[in-house]
Specification:
By secondary structure, this protein is an all-beta fold. It has no helices and 20 strands. It has a domain of 221 residues. Strands 1, 2, 4, 5, 8, 10, 12, 14, 17 and 19 form a ten-stranded antiparallel sheet that branches. A five-stranded antiparallel sheet has the order 7-6-9-3-11, with no helix packed on it.
């Protein structure tokens, strides 16, 4: 495909307020990734089942390819699932861990009307089509237009990418870490955003082979900054739900449900001889803040959800009953390496604030 220089001002900043946004200019092309296009930052989408003390969800990603584009590429990082636990352990695997796992299915659909359409399949692949610890092609030089008429005012050709586990999500033992990235030609950036729930994790996922968080130069610092986009005419309230944050006491919640299920294993737990959690501990104890588009603090929550199925929801409606449009910031700190957390919002969850390449 043709690579064109995008005209951007580089401002790669990990946000502590709502206003910062991550862009990075590159000489010939730009990738947009979820959670990032960087294979060295140790941040991943997580696909795991209830046997790993969390909640399973299909991952649904909305992809927008600019109307001005003629083609696009789509890639997966570590889309394989070779991390087989003992017996049969694969000594070379990275970012995957499972014992009796089935296949993972990755399917791209046309979804111009954004209705969850699954009738027009563009491409289907499984984990067997991808390599370990590297970027692999899902589509290359794909025609941007998918053959369905765009609606008046549409700025993008819309697609729906669904990542699914094909086995028994209740009883199989599996945890698959991966990334997705997309680029298109033309002068505008493509977009990736999450529909429904997303589970994220920082390595180590495979305890035998993934980078040791105590090693000098380990890039993950326990922080995630999620932009949440709200458009005009949004139906209030705006909801922020976290599940399985593994807070070690879980004494309260912003929605006052008072469900108390301490984390297991708890975030910021110092560990025991049988559970050496200290190798993954990142202080302070897990917490988050939410900022509105003007940078005003809406919530500071030092006590997010405990162990799954515990979930906590913050509901926001501004004075007058509306939700102002713009980019809200959902900023987490102290998320231990290896702690899988699940996020859900009825806004549009954009890639976390790490550089676009």
């Amino acid at each position: 495909m043709k690579n064109t220089t995008k005209k951007l001002i580089a401002s790669c900043v990990l946000a502590t307020t709502s206003s910062a946004f991550c862009l990075s200019a590159y000489s010939d092309t730009i990738w947009v990734g979820w959670p990032s296009p960087d294979k060295t930052d140790e941040r991943f989408i997580s696909m795991s089942g209830t046997q790993t003390n969390t909640e399973y969800n299909d991952i649904v990603i909305k992809i927008g390819i600019p109307i001005s584009a003629t083609s696009f590429d789509l890639e997966f990082f570590d889309g394989d699932a070779s991390g087989i636990g003992l017996p049969g352990f694969d000594p070379d695997s990275r970012y995957d861990s499972h014992f009796n796992a089935a296949a993972y299915s990755y399917t791209l659909y046309e979804d111009q009307n954004q209705t969850g359409n699954t009738t027009n399949t563009i491409q289907v692949k499984t984990d067997a089509d991808f390599v370990n610890n590297e970027w692999s092609t899902f589509l290359v030089g794909q025609t941007a237009s998918h053959g369905v008429a765009v609606n008046p005012g549409d700025e993008f050709y819309y697609y729906r990418l669904v990542l699914s586990y094909t086995g028994d999500t209740e009883n199989d033992i599996f945890l698959n870490g991966l990334k997705v990235r997309v680029r298109s030609d033309g002068d505008s950036l493509p977009e990736l955003s999450i529909l429904d729930k997303i589970s994220v994790v920082a390595s180590p996922i495979n305890q035998f082979n993934d980078p040791d968080p105590t090693t000098s130069g380990y890039p993950y610092d326990g922080s995630w900054s999620f932009p949440v986009r709200v458009g005009s005419g949004f139906n209030a309230p705006l909801l922020f739900t976290d599940i399985d944050a593994d807070h070690k006491t879980d004494n309260s919640s912003p929605d006052n449900t008072n469900t108390i299920i301490p984390g297991d294993p708890a975030d910021d737990f110092s560990g025991t001889a049988s559970i050496p959690k200290e190798a993954r501990l990142i202080s302070p104890n897990i917490r988050y803040t939410i900022f509105d588009p003007s940078g005003n603090l809406l919530l500071s929550n030092n006590d997010p959800s405990g162990d799954a199925p515990d979930e906590e929801t913050f509901s926001y409606t501004a004075a007058g009953g509306a939700v102002p449009e713009g980019i809200y910031r959902w900023n987490w700190i102290g998320v231990d390496a290896g702690n899988t957390i699940i996020l859900e919002t009825n806004g549009e969850l954009l890639p976390p604030c790490v550089c676009r390449y």
